[in-house]
Amino acid sequence: MTGATDFHEPFDINDDTLREECGVFGILGHEDASALTALGLHALQHRGQEAAGIVTFDNEQFRAERHLGLVGDHFSDAETIGRLTGRAAIGHVRYSTTGETILRNVQPLFAELEGGGIAICHNGNFTNALTLRQQLIRDGAICQSTSDSEVVLQLVARSREQKIVDRFVEAITQMEGAYALVALTSKKLIGARDPLGIRPLVLGDLNGAPILASETCALDIIGAKFIRDVENGEVIVCTSTGIQSFFPFGKCPARPDIFEYVYFSRPDSIVGGRSVYDVRRDMGRELARESHVDADVIVPVPDSGVPAAIGYSQESGIPFELGIIRNHYVGRTFIEPTQQIRALGVKMKHSANRSQIEGKRVVLVDDSLVRGTTSVKIVQMIRDAGAKEVHFRLASPPIKHSDYYGIDTPVREKLLAAKYGLDEMCNYIGADSLAFLSVDGIYRAAGYDGRDNENPQFTDHCFTGDYPTPLTDLSEDQDFVSAPRLVEVG
Predict the structure, then answer these.
(1) What single DSSP character describes residue 474?
(2) Phi, psi of 125 (to 5 degrees)
(3) pLDDT tens across 158-200, in order?
(4) Strand runs (DSSP E) across 425-467, as ranges?
(5) What's this model's pTM, rounded to 2 decimal places?
(6) Which of 35, 300, 398, 402 is the most buried (most CB within 10 A)?
(7) Residue 22: helix, strand or coil by DSSP?
(8) CA 82 – CA 66 distance, rounded (Å)
């Protein structure tokens, strides 16, 4: 076999990461509903950075603002917030896991039904959305977006149930995959979490106003009280008279996505009763126990590798230093993207702190390894800064399988761990040694003795290939006809 180092691909600073899913927020019964929603979306910005939208209801009509770009680019001025009147609001930040990044795909999506309007936004991915969409179109549905969220609206609209909540429930019981849904009607704020609880959703309260959000950090930013996690398979209905909860799917053991702890959630959030920061730090501790190496300094790959590097340092006794400084203001370069400029891309985002690296044996700690192209550049950058040795440690197991639940992973053929063994990967990134946290190790960091292979405690398909739901749209008997579609060019 040809050496792994012969397969280096052109470097793209934005193409070697697990891109976040989406973030949702909703509040009912507060005079500052739109402003609080904008703040909540600011806190959830890490979950989606391509588009943001807010829909409010002012007792007479729904009002919507949806834009491409960051929350702060569009929802930070008094004029915009002033247009979004009403005491109820839902909001969404998006990364385009399904559907292009175009304005008609930006959520919340809205539909006028027989009983009134409904706005919907969701985090996650439906694994049978294409199948249902094709059936709906065959039955005469007119789809205005390419987002799988619209499928839910179409199913709600076609339900013959009388009550809007019953129509909503009938719709989601037809969906497969992972989702946290938030919907707003003229009288209700509705939340729903998939039967396994793969995607997160929490319930909060601000002076009597109920809140639904993807993470607790969105509650913290507005001074709201965390009440509890929305349970897996739960539908929660908030009105002016109180909160009702029911379980249309029945109850089953939860299997939340373990990647919320590895990468997606903010470190200051509490997910499933666990501090994300504590779990990430303990992943580093476990990593040090499993793959200790003699070294002079522990260096995190910022920012996501920092908690694990702290844990590695604490467990190993090797000093922790910020050997890489991150530029937080980098975006896509405006310079003509020649190969020479692309080769400099990592230096736009990360710079070596030579004073902490030169002449030392360095352990680089990162949260995960995807394509490996960024890791190649970072390892070389550390060597160029004078490191004697560079040992790469990953605070999660090898990512060998693609995600279909709302995380934008590359196709499996482009995942480094799916192509190469450990030695080949080490050779590829140019490190002196390479080690990943074991599957049992990541479970221990989350408070378990290890993975229960009969009844896994988490959804961990990226590591194990164990997909906990049907993947209907990927089945071989599906034949999706690609009809001509509208392309927005300006």
Answers:
(1) G
(2) -155, 135
(3) 999 999 999 999 999 999 999 999 999 999 999 999 999 999 9
(4) 433-436
(5) 0.91
(6) 300
(7) strand
(8) 15
- d(CA 194, CA 133) in angstroms, rounded, equals 19
Indicate the annotated binding residues for Mg(2+).
304, 366-367
C-beta of residue 91 within 8 angstroms of C-beta of residue 43 = no
Q: Under a CB-based contact definition with an 8 Å cutoff, are residues 349 and 375 in contact?
A: no
Amino acid at 108: P
Strand pairing category for 297-300 and 361-366: parallel
DSSP string, 290-328: HS----SEEEE-TTTTHHHHHHHHHHH-PPB---EEE-T
Cis upstream peptide for 303 (omega within 30°): yes
Binding residues, as ranges, are 304, 366-367
Catalytic residue IDs = 22
- Specify whether the CB–CB gap between 370 and 399 falls below 8 A: yes
pLDDT tens digits, residue range 31-85?
A: 999 999 999 999 999 999 999 999 999 999 999 999 999 999 999 999 999 999 9
Which residue from 86, 92, 112 is spatially nearest to 28, judged by alpha carbons?
Answer: 86
Residue ranges of domains in the chain, CATH in brackets: 23-254 (3.60.20.10), 277-327+342-458 (3.40.50.2020)
Nearest of 366, 369, 330 to residue 347 by alpha carbon:
330
**Quick count: other Cβ atoms within 10 Å of Cβ 2?**
6
Q: Are 44 and 430 in contact (CB under 8 A)?
A: no
